[in-house]
Write a structure and sequence with these properties.
The structure is a homodimer. Chain A is of the alpha+beta class. Chain A is built from four helices and eleven strands, in the order βαββββββααββββα.
Amino acid sequence: MTLSTTPRTTLGRLRERGATDRTALHDVLDAGLVCHVGLVRDGAPVVLPTGYGRIGDTLYLHGSTGARWLRAGPVCVTVTHLDGLVYARSVFHFSMNYRSAVVFAEARTVADEQERWAALEAIVEHLAPGSWGYARVPNRRELAATVVLAVDLTEASVKVRTGPPGDDPEDVTDAVWAGVVPLTGGYGTPQPDAHVPAGTEPPPHVRTR
Amino acid sequence: MTLSTTPRTTLGRLRERGATDRTALHDVLDAGLVCHVGLVRDGAPVVLPTGYGRIGDTLYLHGSTGARWLRAGPVCVTVTHLDGLVYARSVFHFSMNYRSAVVFAEARTVADEQERWAALEAIVEHLAPGSWGYARVPNRRELAATVVLAVDLTEASVKVRTGPPGDDPEDVTDAVWAGVVPLTGGYGTPQPDAHVPAGTEPPPHVRTR
C-alpha cells in the first residue's frame, strides 16, 4: 500500500487453495459495504464504487439498466478495509494495516428471475440487514429497470497487513515514537426522515446496527 | 451506488468547469486515506488500493520498483467516502450517502529528483501529517527502490449523495421507518511498538490526530 516492505500475509490466487483462504476471502467481502469495480471502456480503465451482496462463491452487483458500466465482461472487484496507520521511524516504512480482497472475473448478466430476486435480496441484506421484507420488495417496474451482474469468486487474492512498523534496526531509537494509530468506524444515531412521526423508535434491525 | 434513483449532485467532468468544482474534487481527495487505482493488464481490469498525496492538480502514487502495476499508462483513480446508509420504505430506494472522486489520466513516471522528493513528502504528509522530518527521510537506496507516478487531475468527476431517502409518495406510511444511519470514523488510541520505552507519550502530531 505504501513504501513499506514489511512482510504481508498474501494469500494469493485462491484458485488452487483450500477452505481457509476461501473463508478469509468471504470475511473480507462480508465486512465491507462498498466495492470498487474496475472495467475497461474504450481501452482505458474505469473504477466505480458500488454496493454488493454475496451468495456462496458469487458476488452480485446491480444498478440501473441505463448504467453504461453494468455490462457482462471482464471486471476486477476490490474491497479494502483500513485498520490502522503505521507510523515508523523512517518514512520509508510508513504503512497501513489493512485487509483487501481483489477478485478477477468475467461478469455475467443474470437473466434467471429467481437468481435475480435472490441477488437483490442479498445486496439489500448486505447493506442493511433485516430490511428485505421490512421495506417493500421490488415491483415489476422496478425489476425491469434493474440490471444484476454475477461475479464468480474463484479467482481472487486476499492481502492482510497487521502489526507494528517494520523499521530497520539502525533506525530504532528512543527519540522517535513509532507504532500504530487504529482506524475506528461505526454507526451513528439513526436519523428519521421528515415523514416519520415524532417519537417513533427505529425498528430493532436499524437500532441494533 | 445502489438501486436508488434519488437525484445526486453530479459535478461531472471537470475539464471545462470552474474553481468550485475543483475545490470539491480537492476536498474529496484530501479527505481520503486510500484510493483505488484501476489499470488495464493484458486487456483486463485490475483495481488495487494504495496511498496517495496531492500537490495542486497532480496526484502522486508510489511503490516499489518491483510492483508490476506501477507503470506509466492510462489509469483511473477513485476515492470514495461513505457517509451514511439510506434506509427507504421500498428496497428499490435504499442507497448510500457518499462522496466520490473519479480521475481519468495517463499516469506519468516521475524522473525529476526534486519532484520525486516533493511527491514522497506529499504522500507521507497525506497519510500521517507532521511525520516528514520527524521520522527519517528516505536515503539513496530507498529512493532508488521507489517508483513515483504522477496523475493529472484535469479530467475528473465528483459525485455526492446527501440527505434522506427518495421514497415514492405512495410508499410513505407511518408503519415503516425510513431515514439515514450515519457512518462514523475516527482514530483510536495510538499503540506504541515494542521498542518505545514504557511511559513515552506519542508526539503531538500523532496524539492530536
